[in-house]
Every structure is written in structure tokens, then in C-alpha cells.
Specification:
Elements lengths: L1 H21 L16 H19 L4 H16 L3 H16 L2 H15 L2 H13 L3 H19 L2 H16 L3 H15 L6 H10 L3 H29 L10 H4 L3 H28 L6 H15 L4 H34 L2 H7 L9 H16 L3 H13 L5 H15 L6 H9 L4 H25 L2
Helix pairs in contact: 1-3, 2-3, 2-16, 3-15, 4-15, 5-8, 5-13, 5-14, 5-15, 6-13, 7-8, 7-9, 7-11, 7-13, 8-9, 8-20, 9-11, 9-19, 9-21, 10-11, 10-18, 10-19, 13-14, 14-15, 16-17, 16-18, 17-18, 17-19, 17-21, 18-19, 19-21, 20-21
Length: 454
């Protein structure tokens, strides 16, 4: 152990020293557009990504892996310390500005601690008489709908994953199904930044892009539902635990009253954007549904108002820590992007035969999403301009976006994956391994579809 620690210490000291020595030697033009490097330079550019991926699979802390890859990118791309500092100061605020996941996580924890989810599960347990597979399918539908309507997979998973774990435990197929549902939802959602980026580069309205991709979204969501249903039925899982004394003696009416805050929160997350659009004003904005849910916790459960608010504040801790962590990691990913690594990967698609250009681009997007999928919108902003320059149609760009999204569901640093890892109380490497077969199969299907329809 001591020898291993000394090796890591020496490596980090050497890397940092080399960074300081190199900072003034290499110069980079900050105004220069990122271009795809060619030949041997392209191979060199993607080495930091490979190093990060290897280190993550060896369970090295994501920030240590990112730092090593980032320093390599600085040396390869001639990025100065001033530029690196600029990346750092911009990346963290960009992640912490993701208000909806923070709010959803915080208020969901208040609902959870007040017993709202436990009451709901007790009701379901009494109602479906052991048919847990139907609940698994319903959980996948919730994940897809919440992500599609809010445009953010991580925020939805923060609400739904603890509910799923408390009900049926950590079923690998269910986790994979939720991941797939989230990926295809936030890349085709009318409310997501990902859809905005695709529509801008595809030169179409967001609504038109969403309409075009809806059939594919529904198809993959249906597949995810089947996977979740299959996993629960195959493993013959039962509801976790027995009814506690606190809930065993409650009537169904009392349990339903305790569940009302959870119902309102889920309704607001899933249907809030639609309701706001129909009304023409934000009735169910994060501010209003947070206040409404806290008041309902006070009215419908045994929590005092002070305790409800305290639970909400405590609930924000996990997501804030993860967003901060991912923001630092994204600093190093953006440095790698500056070297042209992502452009080099996707530019390989130009060499593919004409009929395979779109599938090749989809696969390239998937490959980028695996090591770098911390925040898919930022990755799309780096890779889609290269893809768009090939003259892709909007639906082809949408397939590439879905490919990056699916790749992110094998990423150790993706926010949705972090939320699933936390909600199901599993190490994230186990979530990645469990997702492998099902996400891989979805990517294969997407490649076939992109070959037939582009």
C-alpha cells in the first residue's frame, strides 16, 4: 500500500512540475477554432481520453484521472496555465447552474424522509399482490416521462431511483432500463439543452426536431420498459422488507394522504412544462412546486414545517457535491476538446463509405460519450459542428445525439449515472457493468436504424 502511494505521489509531483515547466514553452492561439488533427497528431490527441478511461476502469478517482488526462492535453495542445484557469472558472459555474436537478434532489429528499415514498410503496404492495414486474415497468415510464418533460435525466433520477430501490432493490435490468430511457429522452426532449444544440446546428426549430425524433424516442422507451419488466420478472424479486409498524396499522386513506406530496412532486416534474405551456405562465415552476410540496409535507405527514425545510436543505448536499465534482472533471475534458481530440474521433466518419457515414458518426458519438459524458450538452457542442459540416440531416444529427447520450450511460462521471448509483446504493462501476449489455444492444439497434433512415 505504501509503495503504491509513493508511486502515485511521485507521478503527481512529476506531472505538476512538468506542467509548470511546460506552461511557458507552449503557446496556443485562444481565438483559433478547434480543427480535427490529422495523421499521427490525431492519434496523440486522443491519448488523454484513453488514459482517463483506463484509469476510471481501474477505479482511480475521477478527478485524479481527469487531472492526468488534462495535463497531457495541455502539453499536447499547448494550453497555457491562464487558459486552463479560464476553463476551470467557467466549467464549475456551468454545472452549478443546473438548478432543476438541485431543486428536484433537495425536495425529493424531504418527501422521502417524511415517508411519502414509503407510504406510496405500501399502497402499491397492497394493491398489485406481488406483481413487481408491473411496478418496474411503471418506474421506467416515470423516468422517461420526467426526463422528457424536464429535459434533465439526472434531476429525474434523483427523484425516482430511491423510490425504485426501496420497492424492488437494485435490479440490474431496471437500472439499465432507466439509463436508456433517460438517454433517449434528454437528447430528444423539447426542454433540453441537447435538443437546442441539435436544432441550431440542423437549422430547424426545436419543435420540428422533437416531432421528427418522437417516434424513435417512443421506440427506445418501449424497449426500456420491456427490459425493466423482464428483469423484475426474471429475477422473481419481491418487495423489499415488511411493512413497518408505523405503516402497517394505517388505513389506505391515511397512506394515500401521506403520499400526496410525492404525487404532486412527480406530477410537477413530469407534467409541469406541459401545464405551464397550456396556461401561458409558469404555474408549476421549480419555485412554486417546491413551496407547494413543502406545505403539503407539513399538512399530510407528521413533519413540522421546520423539519420539512431542514430535510430539503440536507437533500441538496449530494447533488451539489456531484455537480461540483463533475464541473472540475469537465475542466479537463474541455482541455482535451481544445486539442481537437473529439473532432479527430468524429472526423474519422468521413473515411467511411457513403452508406455508412451516418452509422459511423453515431458510433463515434457513442465512443466520445463513454469517457467524456459528464454533461452531454457540452460534448455535443464540441462534436456536432464537425458532424454538421458533413451535411447531415436533422434526423441524422438526432441519431448522433442519441449515440452520445447512450454512451454517457456507460460513463463514470455522468450525472444520471451518479444519481442512479446513489439511489440504488451501488458503486458506480457496478452500474456501468450492469448497463453494458443493454446499452450496447440499444446502440447496435440505433446503428441499424441510422443506416436505414437518415
Amino acid at each position: 500500500m505504501m509503495k503504491k502511494k509513493n508511486i502515485w505521489t511521485s507521478l503527481l509531483v512529476f506531472t505538476f512540475t512538468f506542467l509548470l515547466c511546460s506552461a511557458q514553452v507552449f503557446a496556443a492561439d485562444e481565438t483559433m477554432a478547434v480543427k480535427a488533427p490529422q495523421g499521427f497528431k490525431a492519434v496523440i490527441a486522443i491519448i488523454p481520453l484513453i488514459v482517463i478511461l483506463v484509469l476510471l476502469f481501474k477505479r482511480v478517482n475521477m478527478l485524479v484521472a481527469g487531472f492526468i488526462g488534462g495535463v497531457m492535453a495541455m502539453i499536447i495542445g499547448g494550453i497555457t496555465l491562464a487558459q486552463a484557469n479560464d476553463f476551470f472558472l467557467k466549467a464549475i459555474p456551468s454545472m452549478l447552474s443546473n438548478t432543476a436537478p438541485i431543486v428536484n434532489s433537495a425536495i425529493a429528499m424531504a418527501v422521502f424522509q417524511s415517508g411519502g415514498y414509503t407510504a406510496a410503496l405500501t399502497l402499491v404492495k397492497r394493491g398489485i399482490k406481488g406483481r413487481v414486474e408491473f411496478l418496474a415497468a411503471f418506474i421506467v415510464i416515470l423516468q422517461a416521462a420526467a426526463t422528457y418533460m424536464s429535459g434533465i435525466g439526472g434531476g429525474s433520477a434523483m427523484v425516482i431511483a430511491p423510490l425504485a430501490f426501496a420497492a424492488v432493490g437494485a435490479i440490474p435490468e431496471l437500472i439499465a432500463a432507466m439509463s436508456i430511457a433517460a438517454a433517449v429522452s434528454f437528447t430528444t426532449s423539447p426542454a433540453s439543452l441537447e435538443s437546442s444544440i441539435v436544432s441550431k446546428l440542423g437549422n430547424i426549430q426545436v419543435a420540428q426536431y422533437v416531432d421528427t425524433m418522437r417516434i424513435y424516442w417512443l421506440a427506445f422507451v418501449a424497449i426500456a420498459i420491456v427490459i425493466g419488466f423482464y428483469g423484475a420478472k426474471k429475477r422473481k424479486v419481491l418487495f423489499q422488507g415488511e411493512e413497518s409498524e408505523e405503516y402497517k396499522n394505517k388505513t389506505n386513506g391515511q397512506l394515500f394522504k401521506n403520499t400526496i406530496p410525492a404525487i404532486v412532486l412527480l406530477f410537477s416534474v413530469i407534467f409541469g412544462p406541459l401545464v405551464n405551456k397550456l396556461l401561458g405562465f409558469p404555474l408549476l415552476s421549480p419555485l412554486t412546486y417546491t413551496i407547494i410540496t413543502l406545505v403539503l409535507i407539513f399538512i399530510c405527514t407528521e413533519f413540522s414545517l421546520n423539519k420539512s425545510v431542514d430535510a430539503m436543505i440536507d437533500g441538496s448536499t449530494y447533488i451539489l457535491v456531484r455537480l461540483f465534482q463533475v464541473g472540475i472533471f469537465l475542466t479537463f475534458i474541455n482541455m482535451i476538446g481544445k486539442t481537437g481530440a473529439f473532432a479527430a474521433i468524429v472526423s474519422v466518419t468521413k473515411a467511411a463509405p457513403a452508406a455508412f457515414v451516418v452509422p459511423a458518426a453515431v458510433f463515434a458519438g457513442f465512443l466520445v460519450g463513454v469517457p467524456a459524458g459528464a454533461y452531454v450538452a457540452s460534448i455535443l457542442a464540441l462534436v456536432l459542428p464537425v458532424i454538421a459540416s458533413l451535411g447531415f440531416s436533422p434526423v441524422a444529427l438526432g441519431f448522433v445525439a442519441m449515440g452520445v447520450g447512450l454512451g454517457s450511460q456507460l460513463s463514470f462521471v455522468n450525472i444520471t449515472m451518479q444519481a442512479l448509483s446513489s439511489g440504488f446504493q451501488l458503486p458506480i462501476i457496478d452500474v456501468v457493468k450492469g448497463n453494458g449489455k443493454w446499452v450496447g444492444g440499444s446502440v447496435l439497434l440505433l446503428l441499424i436504424i441510422s443506416f436505414l433512415v437518415h
